[in-house]
Design goal:
- It is a single chain.
- The chain is of the alpha+beta class.
- The chain has a single domain (about 15-265), classed as T-fold (Roll).
- Helices cover about 25% and strands about 20% of the residues.
- It is built from six helices and twelve strands.
- It has helices at about 50-65, 75-80, 85-100, 110-115, 135-145, 230-240, and strands at about 15, 30-35, 40-45, 155, 160-165, 170-175, 180-190, 190-195, 205, 210-215, 220-225, 255-260.
- The strands form three sheets. Strands 2-3-4-5-8-11-12 form a seven-stranded antiparallel β-sheet. Strands 1-6-7 form a three-stranded antiparallel β-sheet, with no helix packed on it. Strands 9-10 form a two-stranded antiparallel sheet.
- α1 runs antiparallel to α5, α3 (about 85-100) packs parallel to α6 and α5 (about 135-145) packs antiparallel against α6.
- The radius of gyration is 18 Å and the shape is globular.
């Protein structure tokens, strides 16, 4: 799954199907790894340093240590026990607060207790940044890649996607629980994509305003934004708000995938 907070679905994006088929310059063979309880994949065009895998893994490890709700010694876990927030943690909290305020509370990171009660988080009270943290970490990987001179890339972490220069096609999954089919193909260039949905794990997305799971026919919402943290947080918020909310700002593109009953398998 994409994550466990008021969040959406994990694997709503297939970057392995079309994303690595380049139209002009063939991409390098993708490299993969694991971080933040999920997998990551990086593909790029052009030259890159040999230590690229190590560089990506190091960035992700740093932010997992900051944001993990499962590591007892993480910055987040210590903060939830009453210790001061680190500078890195403060950056993410401020971004989460901005999305919370802009969404009218449809996104809210202050629901660790409710997340645990729903079976998707550790016991305790405080905040859970898994609804925005992976997107934030993806952005930090993108920054590191550009510092290394890798500008034409696509990076995915648990369904959160960031594309650099060039055009990278990405398939978005139809909201069908028992098979993987493409609903549409998007081309990303210097943009990020996040998708939230309920069709693989119905009932796991929590409305923070009520503390109860969101109940809706199989569906998902995809958000394209300039950065992955913004796309991540708004994908979560918009799934809570429902299909009637589409136009947030001019810089955010929103697309709903609604599965009709006639297209469901018995």
């Amino acid at each position: 799954m994409k994550r466990a907070l008021v969040t959406g679905l994990a694997a709503a994006v297939f970057i392995g199907v079309l994303v690595f088929k380049s139209r002009d310059v063939p991409p390098r063979s993708p490299i993969t790894g694991r971080a933040m309880g999920t997998t990551w994949t990086l593909a790029w065009r052009g030259d890159a340093p040999r230590e690229l895998r190590h560089e990506v893994a190091a960035v992700l490890e740093h932010w997992e240590q900051v944001l993990s709700q499962w590591r007892a010694d993480s910055n987040l876990s210590r903060y939830n026990r009453g210790e001061p927030a680190s500078d890195d943690l403060t950056r993410v909290i401020r971004l989460a607060e901005a999305v919370r305020d802009a969404s009218g509370g449809a996104f809210d990171h202050r629901i660790l207790e409710q997340v645990h009660a729903a079976g998707y988080g550790p016991p305790g009270t405080g905040i859970d940044l898994s609804g925005i943290g992976k997107g934030f970490a993806v952005d930090r990987v993108g920054e590191r890649l550009r510092k290394l001179g890798v500008n034409d890339f696509i990076f995915e972490l648990g369904g959160e996607v960031l594309a650099g220069d060039g055009g990278w096609p990405v398939d978005v999954e139809r909201p069908v629980s028992n098979r993987h089919e493409s609903a549409r193909t998007l081309t990303l260039r210097n943009r990020a994509l996040a998708t939230s949905g309920n069709y693989h794990q119905p009932g796991h997305i929590i409305d923070p305003r009520t503390g109860k799971p969101v109940k809706r026919p199989p569906s998902s919402v995809s958000v394209i934004a300039a950065d992955c943290a913004t796309a991540d947080g708004w994908a979560t918020a918009l799934f809570v708000l429902g299909p009637g909310f589409r136009n947030i700002t001019d810089d955010i593109e929103v697309t709903w995938q609604l599965e009709s009953p006639s297209n469901r398998q018995e």
